[in-house]
TrEMBL record:
Binding site for a divalent metal cation: D12, D13, S43, N91
SUPFAM superfamilies: SurE-like (SSF64167)
Protein function: Nucleotidase that shows phosphatase activity on nucleoside 5'-monophosphates.
Its EC number(s): 3.1.3.5
Main localization of the protein described in the UniProt heading: cytoplasm
Protein name: 5'-nucleotidase SurE
Matches recorded under NCBIfam families: surE (TIGR00087)
Location of the Survival protein SurE-like phosphatase/nucleotidase domain: 7-174
Organism encoding this protein: Halorussus aquaticus
Matching HAMAP family: SurE (MF_00060)
Cofactor note (record): Binds 1 divalent metal cation per subunit.
Family (UniProt): Belongs to the SurE nucleotidase family.
Gene3D superfamilies for this protein: Survival protein SurE-like phosphatase/nucleotidase
């Protein structure tokens, strides 16, 4: 891929979020970016689709009154040049662990692209539970945006997408001095650059619910574990990497796989 690469950019936080602006600025240095993103916050909608959605011109591209999956289909099929790669994010809040892959609108946009046969990258910035909710600033996304730009430039030619269909990238909030902006608005290497590691999704799952006065409240306890001294996730997982202050990159495939099961064959034959 060269600098004339076509990039489709979307997210689930909405087109006016700082995370998508950071990616737009970073990726514009390495390709032609067409932004097709939700007009407002569509977090945690998974691969929900609206099918008929109004679209409006926006300074970054197009704002769609729909979901991230709507945006990917609209961008691929109608609104922009057919892309070489789809990028989704950068999300405010991490998307780590196997259980969030089908829940996250950010990741679901990458999955939607994968079903089209287009390589994709989903990107998210971890915000500690103790700081949530937080109004993140544009500069806080600089390092993860640089990591995504690096992958967009190099992963396709390196053959990464011959095995993976999309990459799920999660980064910690940058520590002070971990990256600096150059005169062109990009990010340059420093001795404190956050390391990037290849990971697999964690299988830790810890959700429960409480009921009070006829209202059930769901609790995702995994986020509290990220601020504990005894994280249950083993080495090599995405949560462990972000917990240790590293940029996690998980190479993933989109279609659900099926395996041969003798026991199910026997049941089917006996029906």
């Amino acid at each position: 891929m060269s600098d004339d690469r076509e990039i489709l950019l979307t997210n689930d936080d909405g087109i006016d979020s700082p995370g998508i602006r950071a990616l737009y600025d970073a990726l514009s240095a390495v390709g032609n970016v067409t932004t097709v993103a939700p007009a407002d916050d569509q977090s945690a909608v998974g691969r929900a689709m609206t099918y008929e959605v109004p679209v409006h011109e926006h300074e970054l591209g197009y704002a769609v009154e729909g979901t991230p999956s709507d945006c990917v289909v609209a961008g691929l099929a109608e609104l922009g040049p057919y892309p070489d790669i789809v990028v989704s994010g950068c999300n405010e809040g991490a998307n780590i662990g196997a259980y969030v892959l089908g829940r996250s609108g950010t990741v679901s946009a990458a999955v939607e692209a994968a079903f089209f046969g287009v390589p994709a990258i989903a990107a998210s910035l971890h915000v500690p539970q103790s700081e949530w909710p937080r109004d993140t600033e544009l500069e806080e996304y600089a390092e993860v945006a640089e990591a995504v730009r690096y992958l967009v430039e190099r992963a396709p030619d390196a053959g990464v997408f011959e095995d993976a269909e999309y990459l799920n990238v999660n980064a910690p909030l940058p520590s002070e001095g971990s990256a600096v902006e150059d005169s062109g608005g990009g990010v340059v290497d420093t001795d404190q650059r956050t390391p990037m590691v290849v990971t697999r999704p964690s299988h830790v799952y810890d959700m429960d619910a409480t009921e009070e006065n006829g209202v059930v409240t769901l609790h995702d306890n995994t986020w509290g574990q990220m601020e504990d001294d005894n994280l249950p996730d083993p080495e090599g997982t995405d949560r462990r990497a972000v917990y240790e202050g590293k940029i996690s990159v998980s190479p993933l495939t989109a279609p659900h796989t099926t395996e041969h099961h003798d026991a199910l064959d026997d049941l089917a034959e006996q029906f």
